[in-house]
Design goal:
Helix content is 28%, strand content 37%. The protein has ten helices and 27 strands. The longest helix is centred in the first third of the chain and has 28 residues. The protein is globular, with a radius of gyration of 24 Å. The N and C termini lie far apart (64 Å).
Length: 463
């Protein structure tokens, strides 16, 4: 009986993947969804969106930090960076447990004793922005009923069951209240995902990950508004400083059109008919429905003229479209990118990303934001299943200090500077992390403590 059920599930998954593959292929063949191809005669757009929602469930859960709680002396937390092989497995298995664990009524209640949060090894997922209840539920494909009493979520703790334990634990932090909501799930409901996550957590220890972080909540450190992970001085916390960058495709204060052609051509469906129009401090490329502009300040802007759908697109599908577009771009102009926030406007969704290096973001100073009219280095506007606008500030890492420095700075020293600058002990720190400050007209970036309070970032050099 069990084998028959497993076989049925496998067949359903296989059919779903085949349908999605046909859909993706059709998108390569036909740029406009209004084209009368076989796929759209058989399947409605709502059906396609539902299929893609299954495949992309949880894609809004993009960790700013993916922490692993080890609970060892002098090694409380470690951060698993995106480049580490088991990063994606830790993230994906955590999301699988979320989906399966929250889909049924396993809610225990609000955590009264915070020590429960550190009763065993776990993944600690910290997102850059909170997801409101309805969006969180829709993105995971679960019922909102499972999240009653939770306004939004921005920190997720997944504590798998080890060895002979029969329960695993999920904790969701609601940033509007500071409360943690507890779900206790039978291991038997999520055996494969649970055991995979437990195994990967063991690998983090066995592989010698020793970047050391401390929890502000666990250690009751004042001035912090929530559970933040702060780096500690360690020989294993390494970074490059400074990093030297340059504006690509620009020499002698002019755009090098012959070099730029190859990069820009990949934004067009038919590069053979695109036309370059040199202007003062800018080159513009056009064809029938696409315009790409690039200027001497390194700003590339893509605009596509399409007939926009009257209805809205799900956030899950829109994010997939945006990420796929960026992935295509970074194959030509590589960078790391981090989703920071989003904005929905009628049938359009705008996603904002930072770029960075070695898991450290390049954080725009206020001067750079004003110069480019952008709050982040990448902006992607999606309507339907198309990117209709794309803006990115291009920088290419030219060189870096060969000395791979180790973190010696202490967060306590930075905290003293914050209090001194704020002029009060009554300060609430919303975020604190390491990032490279991106200053106007400077091609050199240095690592800073980025401290968010009073609604804006403040930079303190790493000394």
């Amino acid at each position: 009986m069990m084998k028959a059920a497993v076989s049925t599930i496998k067949i359903v998954i296989l059919i779903t993947l085949i349908v999605i593959s046909v859909y993706q292929t059709s998108r390569l063949w036909f740029d406009d969804q209004s084209d009368p191809n076989l796929f759209y005669r058989v399947f409605s757009s709502s059906t396609i969106e539902n299929l893609e929602a299954v495949r992309d469930a949880g894609n809004m859960i993009t960790p700013k930090q993916l922490g692993v709680y080890l609970g060892q002396p002098n090694l409380e937390y470690t951060i698993v960076k995106k480049g580490i092989p088991h990063y994606e497995t830790l993230r994906s298995e955590s999301i699988k447990i979320l989906i399966m664990g929250l889909d049924k009524d396993y809610y225990v209640g609000v955590v009264e004793n915070k020590e429960l949060l550190w009763s065993n090894q776990h993944t600690s997922i910290h997102m850059d922005f909170p997801l409101e209840q309805a969006i969180f539920a829709r993105n995971l494909g679960i019922s909102q009923k499972a999240l009653e009493g939770i306004g939004s979520v921005d920190t997720i703790l997944i504590m798998p069951a080890f060895r002979n334990e029969i329960w695993l634990n999920i904790f969701l932090e609601d940033p509007s209240t500071g409360l943690y909501h507890h779900y206790q799930v039978p291991k038997s409901e999520v055996v494969i995902a649970n055991d995979s996550l437990a195994y990967q957590l063991s690998n983090v220890v066995a592989n010698g990950s020793r970047t050391s972080f401390i929890s502000t909540l666990k250690n009751n450190i004042p001035y912090y508004s929530k559970h933040l992970l702060l780096p500690l001085p360690s020989e294993d916390n390494r970074y490059h400083d400074p990093i030297f960058t340059r504006i690509p495709f620009v020499s002698d204060a002019a755009v090098n059109v012959s070099e730029l052609d190859g990069y820009v051509s990949l934004f067009f469906d038919n590069p053979d008919i695109m036309k370059a129009i040199p202007l003062e401090n800018e080159v513009r490329y056009v064809d029938g429905n696409v315009v790409v502009r690039y200027n001497t300040e390194g700003l590339v802007e893509y605009n596509r003229i399409v007939k926009e759908n009257a209805g809205s697109t799900s956030l899950t599908l829109a994010l997939t479209v945006a990420n796929q577009f960026i992935e295509q771009d970074i194959q030509r102009m590589p960078t790391e990118y981090f989703l920071k926030t989003y904005l929905q406007e009628a049938q359009r969704t705008v996603f904002y990303y930072d770029i960075g290096f070695n898991d450290y973001p390049f954080v725009l100073t206020e001067e750079v934001k004003q110069k480019y009219g952008m709050s982040h280095a990448i902006e992607v506007t999606v309507s339907g299943d198309k990117v209709i606008k794309y803006r990115r500030i291009l920088r290419k890492i030219d060189d870096m200090n060969p000395q791979n420095k180790t973190l010696q700075a202490k967060y306590e020293n930075v905290l003293d500077k914050v209090i001194l600058e704020a002029g009060t002990l009554d300060v609430e720190i919303e975020e604190m992390y390491l990032g490279y400050s991106w200053n106007r007209d400077m091609m050199e970036m240095s690592l800073n403590w980025v401290v968010q309070y009073d609604g804006s970032p403040h930079f303190y050099p790493v000394e």
